[in-house]
Amino acid sequence: MVKVVLDCFGGDNSPGANVEAAVKALENNKELYIILTGDEANLKAELENKKFDENRLEIIHAPEIIGCDEKPTDAIRQKKNSSMIAAIDRLRTDDTVAGMVSVGSTGALIAAATLRVGRLEGVMRPAFCPVLPTMNGGVIGICDSGATVDCSAEMMHQFAIMGSVYMESAFGVKNPRVGLLNVGAEEEKGDKLRRELYPVLKAEKNINFTGNMEGRDLLSGKFDLVVCDAFSGNVLVKSTEGACLEMLKMLKKNIYSNWKYKLGAALQKKMFTHIKDFMNYQNYGGSVMLGTRKTVVKGHGSSNAKAIQVCIEQVCRAENAKMNEKISTLLCNKE
Question: Is the entire prediction scored with pTM above 0.85?
């Protein structure tokens, strides 16, 4: 049985999407147990008329909500009865709980997970690793994308190892091809940090380092994991998502501008549906926080039920693959 805590507030579609995701996840996985945190009355109202195994679902009453505009350190200290902190505390104190999912404040989640749940032995800093689809039908992990903005070469070295373990454990990618985000493909390119890191990654026997990766190659399918500091990684992810969404808008606008285009689009409806699904981040879950003692998954604030359900499945895959144990073993052996 895999136990997952689900923070049910803080998202644009909470708590309805969270509860719907929990019910569907329970239906699809008979070995799953979910703990919902949030206002009990609201959660019970959302559960009304839904069919689920009551023996595999639990509610923790936590009526407060941490807003994205609140200072993270103040919020986790002052709002001890919030849905996020209730989830974190259950994760920290209950050895049977594998991980948690939240679509709430990113800053508060990073601070709470790092301070209260703690880091795995050997880990210097945690890292977020979201995934995006590639043109060859696979996925690519981006590590780090928002947890540690100011990085050293040693930290990013660890990101490469943790990210590789994650891609192999959660997605079955054998010997993941690792690239270093840089301004050029040549070995000597980049700033001091990247020039210092390149030979370290090249010499690392526990990863399949394939060289520098330029931003334009993110979705090409040439890489399975890209290593970066959180600042550049976050810009890369959001720029890519934004460009894809704007391309879809432009395509739709042009189609409706001419009756001939409309006719052509009608004949290619399945193709356009496929493209839309390919570019929809909701289909790929959230960002796993690598390096914490237990698995934490941060979903988009605008996540719908499907996206949150995928986040829950990410925790299950990481737990079943013993991802954290593998990461800790590799990093401790380097001490």
Answer: yes
